[in-house]
Amino acid sequence: MAEQRITIEIDEEGKIIAKTSGFKGEACLEELQKLLDEEISPLSLKPTDDFYQKDTIISQQKQSIGGK
Amino acid sequence: MSAIVKTVTPFTNQDLLLEALDELGVEYNVVGTSIITDRKDYYGHQSFELGRNGAFNFSHDSSAERTNYPWSSINFREWKTVTSFLNAVEKAYKNAYGRMIERLAEEERIREEERKKQYVEKIRNETIDRAKGQGYTIKESRQGNKVKLVLTRTVY
To answer: Which residues of B touch A3 (CB under 8 A)?
Structure first.
């Protein structure tokens, strides 16, 4: 059981800063894409340590598919 | 004989012209497309008449341009000649124009602020709707016009 947290700050100009935690790898970007307007284009991305960790669930699924 | 003729700024905006006359303390009546001032010469009240050129032109006794105008000159005050009066009106008209530009800029600034507020609210509402759909719990806080959303969910 793990907590996923996304903090979204929208300033008075409409600029957005989003910070994620509890996600592994690029899942955080996919999650943000689901939450935010598709037309919003990110200006910068600063990965955290979690970003470089592989999502264990995804890798486990891939292994099981490969094993069949 | 040579001459240099210089005209005043065309008074194309009635509101600005009236504002200018107010600034100078000139009394007037607006009758149709005429602005009848309290300045009076031999032929009666001097007035601004809307011409075919789209500007208000000053109508007056041509002799009223002379500083030693021989006829009754009521309410001429410090502007003894038509030229000096029109110069004063022109200056006040330009001031009124400047104020109008400032007002318009301020109105546009307010409209832009409103557009930004609406944009922020739209992003906020859409994000909250999507987050609810994704099973997040939402905590919201605001600081002025800034919005902070903390979305949390537990995964197994």
So the answer is: 152-155
Q: Which residue has the tokens 């099981």?
A: A64
Give CA separation, B41 vs B61, B117, B126, B135, in Å: 7, 57, 70, 83
How many structural domains comprise chain B? 1
Question: Which amino acid does the sequence have at A56?
Answer: T
d(CA B16, CA B92): 9
Here the tokens at position B62 are 């041509």
What's the rounded Cα separation, in Å, for the pair A61 and B149?
Answer: 32
Which residues in chain A belong to E strands, given as ranges?
A: 2-10, 16-21
Domain coordinates of chain A in residue numbers? 5-67
Give per-residue pLDDT as tens, B48-61.
999 998 999 999 88
Boundaries of domain holding B63: 1-156
Closest partner residue to A10 (CB to CB) among B123, B136, B154 is B123
Residue of A1, A5, A6, A37 to mutate, interface with B, max B Cβ within 10 Å: A6
* Grouped pLDDT means (10 residues each) for chain B, 156 residues: 72 96 96 94 91 91 76 79 91 97 97 93 93 95 93 91
Distance between CA B111 and CA B53 in Å, rounded?
34
